[in-house]
User: Fold this.
Amino acid sequence: MGIQERKERERERRRQQIMVAAKRVFSVRGYQKATMEDIAKEAELSPGTLYLYFRNKDELFSSLFIRVLQYLNIRLEYVVNDETEMSPVQKTEALRDAMYDVYEFDPLTLINMFHLQSSDILKNLSSELLTDIKALSRNSLNLMSKIFEEGIKKGVFIDRHPVAFADIVWAIFSGVVLWEESKRIIDGEKNYLKETLGIAFEIFVRGIKTDRKQ
Amino acid sequence: MGIQERKERERERRRQQIMVAAKRVFSVRGYQKATMEDIAKEAELSPGTLYLYFRNKDELFSSLFIRVLQYLNIRLEYVVNDETEMSPVQKTEALRDAMYDVYEFDPLTLINMFHLQSSDILKNLSSELLTDIKALSRNSLNLMSKIFEEGIKKGVFIDRHPVAFADIVWAIFSGVVLWEESKRIIDGEKNYLKETLGIAFEIFVRGIKTDRKQ
Amino acid sequence: MGIQERKERERERRRQQIMVAAKRVFSVRGYQKATMEDIAKEAELSPGTLYLYFRNKDELFSSLFIRVLQYLNIRLEYVVNDETEMSPVQKTEALRDAMYDVYEFDPLTLINMFHLQSSDILKNLSSELLTDIKALSRNSLNLMSKIFEEGIKKGVFIDRHPVAFADIVWAIFSGVVLWEESKRIIDGEKNYLKETLGIAFEIFVRGIKTDRKQ
Amino acid sequence: MGIQERKERERERRRQQIMVAAKRVFSVRGYQKATMEDIAKEAELSPGTLYLYFRNKDELFSSLFIRVLQYLNIRLEYVVNDETEMSPVQKTEALRDAMYDVYEFDPLTLINMFHLQSSDILKNLSSELLTDIKALSRNSLNLMSKIFEEGIKKGVFIDRHPVAFADIVWAIFSGVVLWEESKRIIDGEKNYLKETLGIAFEIFVRGIKTDRKQ
DNA sequence: CATGAATGAGGTTTCATTCAT
DNA sequence: CATGAATGAAACCTCATTCAT
Assistant:
């Protein structure tokens, strides 16, 4: 391992350290209320150091999205490229589980993604980051739609454009997550994400099957 | 009408005037970027006056939710208490249209409702307001679940707890709105909310019907 | 005096109060080392208040120039439009005295005007302010050149373009001021501006006269 | 050459290397906007290394003045000790050309010299550096005044104290440079330094000659 | 009741300087 | 000697909120 490479690795480690701290702070405080000083303190670094690794607060925030989207893509690819001869319906179940794991991987960053105020944030991103986010988003949509495409081809799912299905899955997922979270906030109750997501997916799959009896 | 009452009425009028202005400003700017001065200017009042009607910015913001929830309840009651002998499936279609109108009534306040940063906001609410929000939310859930209850009773929908269905409808709705909005933000494209919402509802209803042929 | 007018007057008074404070602080500290908080403290106001009257630090700084340039123009017009039948040479003496008074009016703001770092500042000005500064600068050049134009017409001064003369007067003036000031800084000695300026002007006028004997 | 001496020489080379880089960076960016990191990068060194050769940013900045003043002195000595029997008036022309070359040698450091904000800088200098600057300044004044002294002795120039003349030459020079620069900044036009300086000197020389016809 | 000028705490970001390697 | 990552003080500016009129 060259000295160059070691440095690069060290640098990456620091980035991760900061992102982990940022994730925690943003999760607890939300984007606006989280201060760079909070994050620095959480990372046990000085505020100035953060700026050696991230151009500004927006960019630090956004880089967290990338992590989640990357994880999502990995999980989806795993489902799509499955070698074990899963049926289309089984694949939707695997999809559901993948979505659930994505949520568990980083619940609060994910929620922040749906955060509309991010519109302001997105505008200020370096085009580099924005391009990455777009690419990852599109890729995950494409992967999901492949699942439905296959089901349609095999005559198991009704014949609608698979991307529309993928959109709806995304929407259901977002909706369940947000709805559960918002109930949790208002009521202080624990959430039933797994259960609700399960039912929602079941209903969805029932709705797109060509024949009721499996 | 007593003098007391007239005063109260006048006061309410002012509150509404401010809320209308606030809605416009929050919609365009988002919660954080909207300043109290912006809102005051929009309402053609002075900043100080706002504080005579709302304790602080959070409370003003939150009171907008009430408006949306009230509108939602009115629309739902209309569907539930329908006298025209609509079938359960027709009622779900009416429900879909109601949801769509709710979105149109005040798209951005609604989106902000799903806004997790509001978690900070919700914590700072007067318990009075919070109680109102909770009550209205529950009421709308109950109204929705009545539609499904009826469908289940009539054997048209599968036999699951109607509140679960209502939750899912809420989730689909939230998800479609947010997903469409976020795509609109990222791509700068126009949104297809109506279309996507239509397909999602259709799939949902297909999924909960006991038999394919109506 | 209408209420509108009184308010406007009050507002102008505050602006002046801030500018006076700013002038003092910039003079002592220089542009970069002077902080808005320093100025606020000097004006016995809070930092935020400064921003109600000036968009930002640059604009506050630049507005001081306007004051000096306005004073310069007043003095120059007085010399140019003189009714007392001064000879061209006498007018150059009046010009010299005017320049000297301009320096006394606000020595340090004037010095800051020659401040090259202001190049950065000038770029950030509102075009409104920049336009004012340009206009005032040009006007003072024009006024000065009128003095020389008259002398040339009367055959008292050699026939060169009067604006060139005006430029040189400005340059001599700037040069004397800066040179005196820099000597003062390095040596801690008192300055001899009046004397040096007097000699410089005398030499200048001798140099442009068509004939030694007046 | 002892090992001690070689080290010293090596050290001096490094200092020069840094100063050359600093000159370039200060020229482009101005004192405040130039960062130590910029300079380090330009010198292909690390920021820390700069501090092994210069106590701080101010001292690095000021050491540039020395270079300019040294060059000025070399040029002036060349004019004063001329062997080619130049007349006093010709010497003033040579002086003018020398001043012009000084400006070309390092325009922006020179301008920064007139920069009053440097007052803050000068205060923080090591007395060693300050002494050097003073000595070089005085020396150049003395050299210039010798030119005028000779002219006075020969009856070509009027009988005033030669140092006063030297002061005025310095002032005219400073003034022209700054005035030209500030016009360039405001108008974005190219500068006419050579031309303006030429006219100013011509007028100056005309003004101190005892007789119009040479 | 209404005003709106003033407040001042607090946020983001920069950069001269240090010090462990 | 040289490095360069890290520091942290300090600057500018915003804006929710107050209070004298």
